[in-house]
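User: Quick sanity check before I run a bigger batch. Here is a single chain. Can you write out its predicted 3D structure?
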Amino acid sequence: MAFEDSRKIGTGLVALGVFFLFIGVILFFDSGLLAIGDILFLSGITMMIGFNYTFKFFKRRDRIAGTVVFFLGIVLVFIGWPIIGMILQGFGFINLFAPFFPMLIKTLSATPIIGDIMNLPIISSLTNRMAQKARPPV
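Assistant: Done. Predicted structure follows.
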């Protein structure tokens, strides 16, 4: 039961982190909001999968370049260079989490409103190609 609760809390923290990152970008790369978003996002991932698995995820040899760039971007946001930091974080995020995108697309296409949008002919041609590549990333 406690494991499920920590996953729920982790999901909420990740969602809040993404929200703060989005608002920080909208408000002209506000360093404070971006830093809060980074902290919430990383703590949410840790709550969802646990500290050991989070450490193993970022430590994997095939993801080391993405990890270094992602955390360098976080450091740059913390020291006050938000634009360069967010560019590096975006690049690192894509390198780290790209294997999860097909599973995310499949999950989103099963949700009520977003699934209807993703089933539109223009969007479904793109999402179907990405979803076919779905395999467990871990």
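Residues 1-59 form one domain.

User: Great, the batch can go ahead then.
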